[in-house]
Amino acid sequence: MPAYVIVQVDVHDAKTYERYKDLAPSSIAAHGGRYLVRGSPVETLEGTWHPSRFVVLEFPDAGSARAWWNCDEYAPAKKLRQATAHTEMILVTGVERQP
Question: Helices 14-30 and 62-70 meet at what angle, rounded to 10?
Fold first, then answer.
């Protein structure tokens, strides 16, 4: 079943963070992942949640998402993101696709 990495990002060094957007995509694709949502603006329809930047990644399965998260290729991008932004990130398994 597909798995999704859902990320709320609050960037505090936008200039340096721009490099992350160049580094991360190749490691995501190498693990079968792709961006479904990447960026802002975000519109709150209900509640008090107001993320400034929101990302949803889709992977073939949770194992592929974990492999991406832990791979050597992603490590430099992860380090850069962690230095330039506060991130909340979760991994969830999707539902089986209907024919």
Answer: 130
